[in-house]
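TICKET: design request
STATUS: open
ATTACHED STRUCTURE:
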């Protein structure tokens, strides 16, 4: 079974949004990316939200969901056989190794496994 591990939300000001989540919902800042465009915040159950500066357009995703699976390659093949829409096959990218898929509404789905991260 896939486990929702973290997600990316596209926001207008990641610093202001991170402040809101920390002050109002008790999240803590986990890290900021070197490019200065993203603040990662984490709740007390280790769920991470990447707050990324971007004004979404119709061509861009509104959010990206990341699911941990036992084996990226096996799960990707299973999803393709079930008719999932692939944006790209498993490959190495800045967020790790895995594919990017789209759900029926166009939300981006990325799957990964701990084996491929190490």
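STATUS: resolved
RESOLUTION: sequence designed for all positions
ATTACHED SEQUENCE:
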């Amino acid at each position: 079974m896939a486990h929702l591990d973290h997600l990316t939300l596209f926001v207008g000001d990641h610093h202001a949004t991170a402040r809101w989540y920390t002050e109002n919902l008790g999240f803590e800042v986990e890290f900021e990316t070197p490019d200065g465009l993203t603040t990662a915040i984490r709740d007390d159950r280790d769920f991470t939200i990447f707050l990324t500066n971007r004004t979404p357009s119709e061509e861009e995703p509104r959010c990206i969901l990341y699911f941990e699976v036992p084996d990226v390659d096996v799960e990707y093949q299973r999803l393709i056989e079930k008719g999932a829409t692939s944006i790209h096959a498993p490959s190495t990218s800045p967020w790790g190794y895995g594919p990017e898929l789209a759900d029926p509404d166009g939300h981006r789905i990325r799957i990964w496994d701990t084996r491929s991260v190490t």
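CLOSING REMARK: Residues 3-89+103-117 form a domain with the 2,3-Dihydroxybiphenyl 1,2-Dioxygenase; domain 1 fold (CATH 3.10.180.10). Helices lie at 14-25, 72-81, 114-117.
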